[in-house]
Amino acid sequence: MIKRxxxxxxxxxxxxxxxxxxxxxxxxxxxxxxxxxGNLFVPFQGENTDGHAYVASAIANGAGAxxxxxxxxxxxxxxxxxxxxxxxxxxxxxxxxxLQQVSPKVVGxxxxxxxxxxxxxxxxLLSQKYSVHKTEGNYNNHLGLPLTILGMTEETEVAxxxxxxxxxxxxxxLSKLAKPxxxxxTNIGEAHLLDLGSREGIAEAKLEITTGLKENGVMIYxxxxxxxxxxxxxSQWKTCSFxxxxxxxxxxxxxxxGQDQTTFSTNLYNExxxxxxxxxxNVLNALAAILxxxxxxxxxxxxxxxxxxxxxTNMRMEMVDGKQGEKxxxxxxxxxxxxxKAAIDLVVELKGFGQKYLVLGDMLELGPDEIQFHRxxxxxxxxxTIDQLFTFGTLAKYIAEGAKTVLGEDCVHAFLDKQALIxxxxxxxxxxxxxxxxxxxxxxxxxxxxxxxx
Length: 454
Hints:
With 454 residues, this protein is α/β, with parallel strands linked by helices. 34% of the residues lie in helices and 20% in strands. The protein is built from 16 helices and 21 strands.
């Protein structure tokens, strides 16, 4: 984490009023309840609370200093306070300055689906050769990214930074702050259609990652996506693409799915790689990670070990055991039509299980066509590939409607009561059954997984 004197901190955010203040600041906190000794406490004004009200208690609890926004009255004169025009902008400026001082290689990762898993893969591969710092959890926005940067050590050689968004301009801000050496766009899906209106709009928003890309930087992208290929194939940066088509820089030659791992080979290396996660879409994520590792001169044996050692963030194609001996794929962190179809395809493909169950919830933020997106998921199912479908939510009921036309009434169960769904599912599942649980984050379907494990 950042360790600087108070005088240095002030200088890094453009202040010069703390000369000769040699107190050491270690790390940054934005929650007064989680302050650790020596932290810089950064308060924010929210709709319901104002963090400035907790500055005194944060310092009493061990914070070494705090920021204070100038338009907030009555800054405490007896405490180590740095007066700034805007606390968020000051935090971002501090992170930008610290990043420049540590000077690691920066890999920026964005995309509609798979960016967190791809970030985890890149970090695992690069950690075979470098000291790597990566985004943890959902710290991928205008607040989380600077906190991620300020959490890295001075010894960091590569920073792998996930960049999320909810609207236009957000990835541009993050990219200009991080100034990536390598940028990755995993894909263009349907997430954020509500805000951006079309897949073209989503593509434009994701391409904002190029605004901070260094002049000699490398752009890695999903080459099967025409919206990206048309924009990037003639770009000013070096470009590398991944995908299923042989026109890409890297593509899979073979893919074999087991019950708890995936084995694949590529056109670039004369060996098979073993991936401890499931799904063909995760092979594509791995191809993106391999291209990053290749750019940073990680050899094939280290790439192979990095893939085997991979630990993905929870609730992303995570295989867990249920109490009855059933196998559960917990993919409850997020969902879009693209990712839901990929997860269903995986369930259909996997062999050696008893009954196959889908537990699908609402996909959120899909805009005016949300009902049709859900209905199409149901209609795309094929009789004989799925034994039972359970849906939860007011939108997911349209998945059920579509599925009844192909699976029949007896195989489809729509619920608005999560506990009722759980009880029905518990009564049906048995040893060696396979259960996929997937929905948008707001549906909290991990609660279904937790109940099946009790």
